[in-house]
Design brief:
single chain; about 230 residues; alpha/beta; Rossmann fold; five-stranded parallel beta sheet; three-stranded antiparallel beta sheet; 8 strands; about 50% helix; globular; binds 2'-deoxycytidine-5'-monophosphate
């Protein structure tokens, strides 16, 4: 039996990390669909806690209070073809958590080490059996350092801003969207706890000049190689 099949009864763990607007979510859902894997958007969990903090009037800087909220929350991710349906204590918050106030707050609540530890514990429970594409910022470095496939997807900030702008169908001016992305990046990349950075063994893909299909093709090659190698050595 191959090592993968022994350790991961349901298939590989595929970790996809990268900054906002790099195309992670679309890539992850396409790869998951192709392989019949679960697609888990970990950013949605930070967003859910951020929403709870907003609704409860808890400061994004108050780690103790955020931890109390976290322990009081049941965050459920239901993988669907077009992304995750997100429930907070049973309530569907999938749309609300994409709004700007929650997006900014998520980047702030995610700096706290104990909040991260709590999230990472849940994420490991969800993914450890394998058969999963998990996307976020620290999947290859912290959540599953032993993931079979690690992709770090990046793109130039202007291009990421442009993609977000188009996704939001002009809800905010272009310059404002790009500025927000840069600020969020800066916070995600420079925080002390698990900053956004590629794992040493991640495959780096810069999607600035690539189409989605070209990115998928590269990732599929990495997956095929991994499956081939693992089966051969198992
Ligand atoms: O991927 P996203 O835009 O939904 O993530 C929202 C915020 O959550 C982002 O600013 C950084 C944080 N995050 C994180 O720190 N670690 C993850 N694994 C996923 C997201």
């Amino acid at each position: 039996m191959s090592n993968v099949r022994k350790n991961r009864p349901n298939g590989l763990i595929i970790a996809i990390d990268g900054p906002a607007g790099s195309g992670k979510s679309t890539l992850a859902s396409r790869i998951a669909r192709k392989h019949g894997y679960l697609n888990i958007e970990t950013g949605a969990m930070y967003r859910a806690l951020a929403l709870k903090a907003i609704e409860s009037d808890v400061s994004f800087d108050d780690e103790d209070a955020l931890m109390r909220l976290a322990q009081d929350s049941v965050i459920t991710l239901e993988p669907r073809l077009d992304g995750n349906r997100v429930l907070l204590n049973g309530e569907n918050i999938s749309e609300r958590i994409r709004e700007k106030d929650v997006t900014d707050a998520a980047s702030r609540v995610s700096v706290h080490p104990r909040v991260r530890e709590w999230m990472v514990g849940l994420q490991r429970e969800m993914g450890e059996g394998g058969g999963v594409v998990m996307e976020g910022r620290d999947i290859g470095t912290q959540v599953f350092p032993n993931a079979e496939v690690k992709i770090f997807l990046d793109a130039a900030p202007e291009v990421r801003g442009d993609r977000r702008f188009k996704q939001q169908a002009g809800a905010a001016p272009h310059a404002a969207v790009t500025k927000d992305i840069r600020e969020r990046d800066q916070r995600d990349r420079t925080r002390a706890a698990s900053p956004l950075q590629p794992a040493p063994d991640a495959v780096l893909i810069d999607s600035t000049e690539l189409t989605l299909d070209e990115v998928i093709e590269r990732v599929e090659k990495v997956i095929a190689e991994k499956l081939g190698k693992t089966v051969a050595s198992g």
